[in-house]
Amino acid sequence: MRGAVFGIKRIYLLPVLILMLGLMLTGCGSQGQSGGFIKKEGVSSIIGVSQANMREEWRVALINELRQEIDASEDIQIITSDATGSAKKQIQDIDNLIGYGIDLLIISPCDEKELADKIKEVYDSGIPVIVMDRAVEGFDYTLYIGPDNEVIGQQAGNYVGGLLSDGGKVVELLGRPSSIQGSERLSGFRKALDGFDNIEVQKLYLDSESKDAAYDIMVSARKFIEEADVIFAYSDSMALGVCDAVREMGLEEKVKIVDCDGFKGADEGIDLVKQGRLAATVSCPIGGKEAFDYAVSILGNESGVPKQVILRSSLITLDNLEESIARMNQPVYDDGRTIRVGYSQVGKESNWRLANTKSIEDAAKKFNIDLHMEIADQSQQKQFEAIRQFIDEKVDVIVVSPVVETGWDEVLREAKSAGIPVIMSDRNVSLENSEENLTTTYLGADFMEEGRRAMRWIRDNVPAEGGKKKILEIMGNEGASPTEERGRGFREILSENPGYGIAYSEHGDFTFDGGRQVIRDYLAENEWDIDIIFSHNDDMALGAIKELKEHGIYPDTDVRIVSVDATKDAFEAMVKKELSCAVECNPVIGDQLMKAIRDLCGGKQMPFRIITDEKIYDQSVAEELIRKRIY
Ligand code: GYE
Q1: CA–CA separation, 232 vs 238, rounded Å?
Q2: 571 CA to middle of ligand 1, Å?
Q3: How far is the CA of 502 from the centre of ligand 1 (A)?
Q4: Model-level pTM?
Q5: Crossing angle (nearest 10°) for helices 568-575 and 538-550
Q6: How far is the CA of 628 from the centre of ligand 1 (A)?
Q7: Please, are residues 501 and 469 in contact by the beta-carbon 8 Å criterion?
Q8: Of ligand 1's atoms, which has the minimum distance to the CA of residue 352?
């Protein structure tokens, strides 16, 4: 037929070609490369997934985990892109994905630094962004899901330290430069080894964090390898290069190899342990299922989506290999039964605490949880008694908001031997030996970041002119994780700003009266010469404001006051131009906590930490936002 191609009139050729192309794209893996993308019928949301490369097994595994979840869902479509290891291409991929009208972006950046601005741009444009595996600097994303690489390094270091209890030589491989992931793992590894004596560490620098570079350095540094007892490589690909070289050099019997990643797949960490070529690997879940679950919550505008989910990593050796693999493949199933929970709450010391208790009680009703809450009036002894009571009552799960960080090992061991998992809520504990896994997960805030935010606001809003600015710090109760970490985060930024200095610091125990007393104590010894007050919570700040005014010292004019929590009362004080700024610490974590409890009882491997999403507010937004404050 003239003017026809394959018997099709020319006039119809273009639409037919586009249709064919679209059909091809929806079917295959990396879509949208060539500009055509067709939204399937009945799909409500499109998730764009930008992967750094599809060369590494675990990155392919992540896409497959996501696909599995999405294929099972009716109304979500996925479109993926492969940046082939190039940050430049990944930025282009993101623009393409946005061009296809995605509703949410999941990205595993191939370079944390180079992609940070692009991720912020997408997030600021209102498209939710889930960052996987490699955390970018700052908090300009919706959710981060990934491992704690410092902890992964520590787990490997503790194992090597145990291996070389009589001392020995460790060869450590590191990229020049190391990725953020690599340097965090090395810092954790070294910190752990510092705890052991007579261990000598020899560093070997690689041109790239790859299998081949690792192999080459082994061969060229044979002398060091022959003297080494252990070789540490912080990724599966580097470790495979080491294993191959050591085998060729006939040194397999002499030297032990330890790595991090522990990915599934042939010649990846777990397989190399199985083959007996690795003495140990530190494995970490991929996070695809978590990413999908949270993507659905975000697209559904559900409340309680955290800011960070730090996945649990675990050390795998031949001894616990089968058990570890069984745990990884354990199906998660919630049978809907009533779950009995014992909750040891700190007390009633602040408005934050009252809002926190209410959110937990309300959520328990929603999630079919039979909640037995014991209020401890800020007494650790009372919390010990409550936990032992819960053990006697044989509850399913114990939740503790610990009044202080230390001293919990004994009572937590009792709960563990009673077979009752323990969740830390709101505040965390520091234990003698983290390898004992006495707690299942921590759900709460990043208190360090809250302290940093407070000092950054002071740096940016109270210029250090006319001499050093004097800060009075009102601390929470001694030994509590929010007190210790807010103080540390604040001092981290303070140390970079010599125009400011802490002139006085005292505990106010997170109470209104405690805040008043700190001001009274200061004025008893000193003339008022303070420029800034940093209060670890609103209640103490409001107590301080009352006391100051009774001494004719006017908040905001005579002294700027910054607090943490951002309760409604704090907003009222900002509207009244008395409080200058409030860093948010979100007490409404009931839903997230109850969801975590049901996941745990359903057999899910719980992450190390679930960090809540928080912001910072000052007088410039208080009036506008006060009506929206729910606590
Ligand atoms: O900031 C304070 C409460 O543990 C995060 O405790 C909580 C703190 C909160 O007394 O108001």
Answers
A1: 9
A2: 17
A3: 22
A4: 0.87
A5: 40
A6: 21
A7: yes
A8: 11
